[in-house]
Design a protein that fits this description.
This protein is an alpha/beta fold. It has helices at 2-10, 43-52, 72-80, 91-101, 103-121, 134-156, 185-190, 229-232, and strands at 16-17, 33-36, 58-61, 85-87, 162-164, 167-169, 205-208, 217-219, 222-224, 236-240, 246-250. The strands form two sheets. It has a six-stranded mixed β-sheet with strand order 1-11-10-2-3-4, with no helix packed on it. The protein has a five-stranded mixed β-sheet with strand order 5-6-7-9-8, with no helix packed on it.
């Protein structure tokens, strides 16, 4: 009971400070940041979470707006209309774009990894992870029709990184052995095998999603925010103040 009480205090509706290793340089953005983890089609959770973020925070979403959850296209439309929210590209958006550009050669990867749910949302049924040929081209056309040219273009131009102070926000992670300027885009979107193994030595903190954790964390230069919203019903935001304080709020 004691442990449950502690977790409820830490991850309840009121933001609570995170215990940090202060031997590290604290994460200090130029302006307050509210970094939101992977949404995966949960527009309901996103709306609830945004209502909890205090005024004065720049909201940044780490990507993976689509797939697995029930309202992927609605999430894209909602975010594309919010000029006050910075949206980054996740690996699921990258897979969708590959599908739209070359469904026969690149579409199956997306279909296997959540694309089936997004396609079903727009009325494309009967596909399987092994579908190919004309079925994928037909699905591509319906996906384009559902998105429209403007929304498809919005997805394509999404940036892969946002920097503020000594914090960078990316979708998946970064190579800890390379400076931020030297990072490869695929590592920012898909992750790097050393990201959770070795710590950075340049004082830069990386806020990210992509890898699901039971609870968000702030340690060893990493702020991890993916709490599996599509399955757990818990969408997380990390509130990072200019004085280095980090708190978490959840839907």
């Amino acid at each position: 009971m004691k442990k449950k009480s502690l977790l409820s205090r830490l991850f309840g509706k009121e933001p609570k400070p995170v215990s940090m290793d202060w031997s590290l340089t604290p994460p200090k953005p130029e302006t307050p940041l509210a970094v939101i983890g992977d949404i995966h089609g949960r527009l309901d959770l996103l709306r609830d979470l945004l209502a909890q973020i205090p005024d004065g925070y720049q909201v940044v979403c780490v990507g993976d707006y689509i797939d697995r959850g029930p309202s992927s296209v609605e999430v894209l439309r909602f975010l594309s209309e919010r000029d006050d929210i910075i949206c980054l590209k996740g690996n699921h958006e990258a897979m969708m774009l590959d599908f739209l550009s070359d469904p026969d050669e690149k579409g199956r990867r997306w279909v296997r990894n959540g694309g089936l749910q997004t396609l079903a949302e727009i009325g494309v049924n009967g596909l399987t992870e092994m579908s190919g040929g004309m079925k994928l081209f037909e699905a591509q056309n319906k996906m384009y029709d559902a998105l429209g040219e403007d929304l498809a273009g919005w997805i394509e131009q999404l940036p892969v990184i946002h920097a503020s102070g000594n914090i960078v926000v990316v979708h998946a992670g970064a190579d800890p052995a390379k400076s931020i300027d030297e990072q490869k885009q695929r590592h920012l979107i898909w992750g790097h095998r050393e990201f959770f193994v070795n710590e950075r030595t340049d004082g830069v903190w990386v806020a990210h999603g992509h890898t699901i954790f039971d609870q968000p964390s702030c340690e060893k230069g990493r702020i991890s925010l993916d709490t599996g919203a599509f399955a757990t019903g818990r969408l997380t935001a990390g509130l990072i103040s200019v004085d280095g304080t980090v708190t978490f709020v959840q839907s």
